[in-house]
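Thread: Newbie trying to understand structure tokens

Hi all, I'm a second-year student working on a class project, and my supervisor (Dr. K.) asked me to get a predicted structure for one chain before our next meeting. I've only ever worked with sequences, so writing a 3D structure as a token string is new to me. If someone could post the tokens and maybe explain what I'm looking at, I'd be very grateful. Here's the chain:
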Amino acid sequence: MHRLSRDDARRIAVRAQLLDADRPADVVEVAEQLGAIKIDPTAVISPSEHTICWSRIGWAYEPGQLSKAVETDRQLFEYDGQFRPTSLLPFLWPLMRTRTLRAATREYLEANARFRADILARLTSEGELLAADIPDTSQVQAKNEGGWYGSNQVPRMLELMMYLGEVAVSRRVGRQRVWDLAERVYPTGLPEMSPEDAETALAARRLQALGIARQKSSWSGVGVAGEEARVEGSTWVWRVDPEAIAALEDDPGGRAAVLNPYDRMLFDRPRLAELFDFEFVLEQFKPKSQRVYGYFAHPILVGDRFIGLLDAALDKRKENLVVGAVHELVPFDDEEREMVHAEIRDLAEWIGVPVRGLD
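---
Reply by user tm_fold:
Sure, no problem. This is what the structure looks like when written as tokens:
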């Protein structure tokens, strides 16, 4: 069993997420390490997939690099709202093909068997298509739980077929997904693997991305991958990536990072609280009167501590990055303030606009 100080545990977590001073070279390296890059249309500053890459790579990142890696080089692929490295496909494929669905979803698919076959036939004969180009021939409509779907059943059916490995997102036109048969998007000759072995391999990759996570946590999905660890001041049983332990001796140091609210570093909220003493609440879905830090506040990491939140947005004409507030969770010292302000200015310059409202 490993016994870690809280400082070392945080350093492992930060480095695993590529948020230390040693920046990665390109988007493929980012995706390989993180395992997934979240896609979200909310672009208060910049879409999540681009901010996530910029937060790691910095000035060398351009949005076109991501689309090239997905659409031309096929080193990444889109699945379930995230860009993932193609190296994960051998592990995801067996799970797609054997996915257990809820009873209501199974009934929906059975009732719409002809609709599902229509989509496959159209893609087979016509090639890749936007959802808008596929007729809705559904026999039964699904309940619109949560209000995420309209009456058109095509987007819902395509997503279910994607989960089952029948269709895939080939590319995007703007924010719209272009669909094709999975066999024409994914590489052929994937190795045979049982679902159990695939899940074990995925648990190890999840731990690689996190560095350290609570054992058997539903938030992290690491199961019992890696090695057991105890962290100073925590009663949890942790799992730690042994390669991350070995890398502690080679410490490149920390830096400032402004993180998109959908950043993978922030997903495991209990871990954030336990290791970083950081209670992050996304206020996007709160009434304005109940917001404390802003509609889409970006957490600010300096070294291995979350010290603030940036409330900023592009103006309506997208000509300026307007800073509403830099909330200090702990008082910034002069060096921290300089680092944070420099990172915000770099963010604005990367987008290509001046920053306004930053003291």
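A couple of things are worth pointing out once you decode it. The longest helix spans residues 334-351. The radius of gyration is 22 Å. Feel free to ask follow-ups in this thread.
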